[in-house]
Write a structure and sequence with these properties.
By secondary structure, this protein is mostly helical. It has one domain: 3 helical TM bundles of succinate and fumarate reductases (Up-down Bundle). The chain contains 4 helices and no strands. The longest helix is centred in the last third of the chain and has 32 residues, at 79-110. 10% of the residues are buried.
């Protein structure tokens, strides 16, 4: 039940996060000062926190979708395996998010 609720919440959060990313990308088509202003907001600690949450929601929602595809085959529907798959979804989303952000930090430090 918790995973279903989280799947729905992350789906809604992805709408908001996508608007933020679209705002940043569309600012690149505007003036340099406007893009710098938007980049300042997105690059602030709060903007980075929102982007971190967005990336976790994306990974969680992706893995939840894969879990549902597995269930569509009729596999892992038993209570004990469904619970293990739910735990794997949560852990996997955290690991993938941290891996993506580690790659971002590594690319920033290399530049």
């Amino acid at each position: 039940m918790v995973m279903s609720i989280l799947h729905r919440i992350t789906g809604g959060a992805l709408y908001v996060g996508t608007l933020l990313v679209a705002w940043w990308v569309s600012a690149a088509a505007g003036s340099e000062s406007y893009f710098d202003w938007v980049s300042g907001i997105v690059g602030s600690w709060f903007g980075q926190l929102v982007l971190f949450g967005f990336s976790w929601a994306l990974m969680f929602h992706l893995l939840g979708g894969i879990r549902h595809l597995i269930w569509d085959t009729g596999s892992y529907m038993e209570k004990h395996t469904a619970t293990k798959l739910a735990i794997a979804t949560m852990i996997g989303s955290i690991v993938l998010t941290l891996a993506v952000w580690a790659a971002v930090v590594a690319m920033r430090s290399a530049a």
